[in-house]
Specification:
The protein is about 35% helix and about 30% strand. The protein contains 2 helices and 7 strands. The longest helix has 29 residues. The radius of gyration is 21 Å and the shape is rod-shaped.
């Protein structure tokens, strides 16, 4: 299970914006070595929006959280994002070849159309996102949020 710590910066309309920095996440052992998923390589804060209420607890700006994402759900979301465009890219020209229209620019047009159709399908599938569970760690101070 992937996990990262962050600080709530804003709460509006039942959604909380969380900023996750590179120095405060215990996601895995490779982060300390500078290898891994890319959180350590980027010097930018990562922003994420989550539901502001879980059970009886409602988030407020300044709260520190531990965010968790189930690895299996993350993998399914990645497959839903990348596989339909790839399948469309390969299926478009193959269907044109079966139909006997494999001359000139038609395979390129078929590949383009398949990629576009797969991209639209992937966009619809991944619109909901991956559910993120959070655990409240306490109220943070101004230095945690990068403010003086």
């Amino acid at each position: 299970m992937g996990q990262v710590t962050g600080v709530v910066t804003r709460v509006e309309a039942g959604r909380a914006r969380v900023e996750c920095g590179i120095s405060n996440h215990p996601a895995c052992g490779t982060c300390a070595a500078g290898r891994g998923c890319g959180w350590q390589r980027s010097n930018q804060l990562r922003r994420l929006e989550i539901d502001a209420q879980q059970g009886t607890r409602t988030l407020a700006p300044g709260d520190r959280l531990e965010l968790r994402i189930d690895d299996a759900r993350l993998l399914r979301a990645a497959c839903r994002l990348y596989l339909p465009p790839l399948a469309g890219l390969l299926t478009g020209p193959a269907l044109l070849r079966v139909a006997g229209w494999e001359h000139g620019i038609t395979p390129l047009l078929g590949a383009s159309f398949g990629l576009l159709a797969g991209g639209c399908l992937a966009w619809r599938w991944t619109k909901a996102g991956v559910p993120v569970r959070w655990q409240w760690l306490g109220a943070g101070d101004a230095t945690m949020r990068g403010q003086p």
